[in-house]
Amino acid sequence: MNYLKKSKHLWMIPLYGIFYMVxxxxxxxxxxxxxxxxxxxxxxxxxxxxxxxxxxxxxFFLIGTVVYFVLFCPGKKEYYQYIGxxxxxxxxxxxxxxxxxxxxxxxxxxxxxSGIFISAVRFLYKVDxxxxxxxxxxxxxxxxxxxxxxxxERCRKNKVFTAAQTVLTVSIIxxxxxxxxxxxxxxxxxxxxxxxxxxxxxxxIPARQEKLAEVFTRKEILTVPNLLSLIRLGLAILFLGxxxxxxxxxxxxxxxxxxxxxxxxxxxxxxIARSFNQISRIGRLLDPLADKAMQAVMLxxxxxxxxxxxxxxxxxxxxETYMLVVGWKVIMETDATGEAQWHxxxxxxxxxxxxxxxxxxVRLPYSTANVLIGACAVCMTMSFVMYGAEFREAxxxxxxxxxxxxxxxxxxxxxx
Length: 416
Prior knowledge:
This protein is mainly α. Helix content is 74%, strand content 1%. The chain has 18 helices and 2 strands. It has helices at 2-6, 12-29, 40-44, 52-72, 76-99, 116-127, 137-151, 153-157, 159-178, 184-207, 209-215, 218-221, 224-246, 252-275, 281-302, 309-333, 342-360, 366-399; strands spanning 35-36, 102-103. A two-stranded parallel sheet has the order 1-2. The longest helix is centred in the C-terminal third of the chain and has 34 residues, at 366-399. It starts with a helix and ends in a 17-residue tail after the last helix. The relative contact order is 0.08. Residues 402-416 have low confidence and may be disordered.
């Protein structure tokens, strides 16, 4: 008991385990339309029942690695890096399974086949449905465990152990495809996610640990505006999930309420932050992230009903990509802080209103709907052009290319 009291960081494993299993069962048991994942490469890979051996060994490999970092690894840093990697990957898997129900149809017909390996594969097929496979958690957790053990100095010194766990990891990855449990797309996506998590937990965070410690404090995180931004981000995921899993036709009241709730949080978080002096550096990132996520989700869900929205979505992606790249350069090179301009707020408001009208009521005539969508595109283009002009002006001012009468302090502006 004393050990458990001193090791409070260990409680995150059972707590997250309960959250993950409950979430997985909910998305697994939902009766929704499944998006089939398939590629030509999947047809070229033969079925091989012998790969059931490394596939089953995955469970022992994962549990053994977790136990090692919990009980036998002296430093907490490597423990947090490993557990953080697993948590990020598995949480993203749950979110993808919710907003994009997926599956595969690659499994062979084993009727008439016999043998111990065939029986084991047949049992696997019975207990594990071919749904919610993207990205492959089998692959992601295997590579994450392999990387964590390789980063550990004690394990890395044992060359035999390092070689063995590397071979096992490769075998597990191959087993997911040769047993027809996962597609090539699932495996590749899991590997890309591993690379991103490795860069985050083993490169970026350790290199900027002191700076991040200053930013991620309780005072910076636990604010009402940040909570509202997180709620809006959750509403965006909920909106996309309802549209993808159940469609818009029978869920218009619920989707309309989500839009109104998101608009309310967007209005309140800025007011509360300024009125009660709760502006934080985390909020400056979280607020625009939630805004853009909600707008992107709303536009994406309307594309199937109104083809013109596809052009607005393309414009949205171009605009936000430009603002992310150039806006970041401006903030880094000038004294600007990035606060929202009136045309950016107008663009957001018009987007909410247009999407709510197109979602809440019956299907409008295409002529009326196109006028509303066009108004959204006009406001977005206007905001894009005006932000571009302000970016250019700020950079010219920084480089001394503007005349004295045009030079002015641009600090306090928010372009996000």
